[in-house]
């Protein structure tokens, strides 16, 4: 069978709109998926004509033109959790109540609000989410104290969080307590962690744009279908995107403890000598210099040598 006509099982499931590829892997691991009545392993490929079933429900093949796919923009309110788990109170699926089976592209923290995409197209999810594809996401952030030049400069240059340095970004001050930031990364709670490192606390965080799509007139809790023009621009932007993850973190800076240990290792003899010099518990050793070239004076010379007396006459 040609490689062009077969498809990995997790991709087949995600392309069908049933769930994301990551969730498909979980379903396969839990033995909830069958191909032609047989429980498959991870990495199994689906051949043309195969019947794929998840929890007893047959999975349909994706339409060639993706005309059956759903793409929506949602203005997530504070308190909604970006999960497809229906047993989680306040999950995003129950909040939207869409008639089709959809899942979010990425996530926003529960205390955060703003724009998030949801879709039934698992293929585009991976393309948009890959950090190396550098798709812009813009946020409006309010903090608990006045902004400083140092804060803006450090945020733009990069901040050490989660064992890495954040990538350079664009920060613009809107008012005394509010700034906008454009990221191409998606680290866990990235903006909140960056602000916390610099001594600030985020009091409000709203995502206002993803790539070419903005909130426009969407009120909190409302959603709309992405327009044909928006989808054309998105598909163009991700046309050359990689679907496989790579390590996009900047080189990890050496910690202070590691740096100090390295210095001590390089200068260990010097450090030991200095320690002995200032350690009173270590007895000081007197240095004796011997001049072998000088002859010892004879007994006669020493005997005839005049003796100095310190007694006062």
Description:
The protein is α+β, with helices and mostly antiparallel strands. The protein has helices at residues 9-15, 21-29, 92-96, 122-129, 149-157, 190-197, 228-237, 256-266, 268-278, 299-304, and strands spanning 7-8, 33-35, 45-46, 52-54, 57-58, 71-76, 103-105, 113-119, 137-143, 160-161, 164-165, 170-173, 178-183, 202-210, 213-214, 223-225. Strands 6, 7, 8, 9, 12, 13, 14, 15 and 16 form a nine-stranded mixed β-sheet that branches. It starts with 6 loop residues before the first strand and ends in a 9-residue tail after the last helix. Mean pLDDT is 80; it is low at 243-256, 262-282, 285-290 and 298-303.
Could you outline the blueprint of secondary structure elements for this entry?
Elements lengths: L6 E2 H7 L5 H9 L3 E3 L9 E2 L5 E3 L2 E2 L12 E6 L15 H5 L6 E3 L7 E7 L2 H8 L7 E7 L5 H9 L2 E2 L2 E2 L4 E4 L4 E6 L6 H8 L4 E9 L2 E2 L8 E3 L2 H10 L18 H11 L1 H11 L20 H6 L9
Parallel strand pairs: 8-14
Antiparallel strand pairs: 1-3, 2-4, 4-5, 6-8, 6-16, 7-8, 9-13, 9-14, 10-11, 12-13, 14-15
